[in-house]
Write a structure and sequence with these properties.
By secondary structure, the chain is of the alpha+beta class. A 5-stranded antiparallel beta sheet has the order 1-2-3-4-5, with helices on both faces. The chain has 2 helices and 5 strands, in the order βαββββα.
Length: 92
C-alpha cells in the first residue's frame, strides 16, 4: 500500500489561514493562545467536520482536530501534519 494514501492533491493547497478565534476546536483554540503559531482549516472534512491545524514553527509541533479532541505530532509544516493525520501516522 502506498505510504501517502491521501496525497493525490497537494495538502497545502487545501489550507486556509485563520485567526485563533475562528478555530472551531476548543482544544486547538486554547493551545493557539499559548504562543506564536499558524492556525489553518482544510477544505477537506471528516464526517462533515472541518479539519483544523495549529502549527508551531519554532518547535515543529502541530495539533490536528476534526470535530473532536486534538491529536499532536512532530511535523515539518501544517501540510505535513495534515498528511500524518489522514494517514494515521500521528507519532508523538
Amino acid at each position: 500500500m502506498p505510504k501517502n494514501k491521501f496525497m493525490l492533491v497537494d495538502a497545502s493547497k487545501t489550507l486556509t489561514q485563520l485567526s485563533p478565534a475562528e478555530l472551531r476546536s476548543i482544544d486547538l483554540r486554547y493551545e493557539a493562545s499559548k504562543g506564536e503559531c499558524d492556525c489553518l482549516r482544510s477544505s477537506w472534512t471528516i464526517a462533515g467536520h472541518a479539519i483544523e491545524i495549529v502549527f508551531f514553527p519554532e518547535t515543529n509541533r502541530a495539533g490536528v482536530a476534526a470535530g473532536s479532541d486534538a491529536e499532536w505530532t512532530d511535523a515539518s509544516s501544517a501540510a505535513d501534519a495534515l498528511r500524518r493525520f489522514l494517514n494515521d501516522d500521528m507519532s508523538p
